[in-house]
Design a protein that fits this description.
It is a single chain. With 73 residues, this protein is α+β, with helices and mostly antiparallel strands. The protein has a single domain, classed as Conserved Hypothetical Protein Mth637, Chain: A (2-Layer Sandwich), CATH 3.30.1200. Helix content is 30%, strand content 12%. The longest helix is centred in the middle third of the chain and has 14 residues. The mean pLDDT is 87.
């Protein structure tokens, strides 16, 4: 966590959606949710992204990520 944001580094290049797919893959594995439960809702072409995660509540999200933060709206 950095400045209230989760920081994820991927090695995939930011071309043709490769980096976005890599971010979704990392989150899917870490959270143990299907990739179809994750949707990039903002920032597809930028470094900062907003990701909608279905099927998991905020408390469980924090537990799986090992962080404790105030709820982000």
């Amino acid at each position: 966590m950095e400045a209230g944001r989760l920081k994820i580094r991927v090695t995939a290049p930011p071309e043709k959606g490769k980096a976005n797919r890599a971010v979704v893959e990392v989150l899917s594995k870490k959270l143990k949710v299907p990739k179809s439960s994750l949707e990039i809702t903002a920032g597809e072409s930028g470094r900062v992204k907003k990701i909608l995660i279905e099927g998991i509540d905020f408390a469980l999200l924090q537990e799986k990520l090992g962080v404790k933060v105030e709820e982000i709206s």
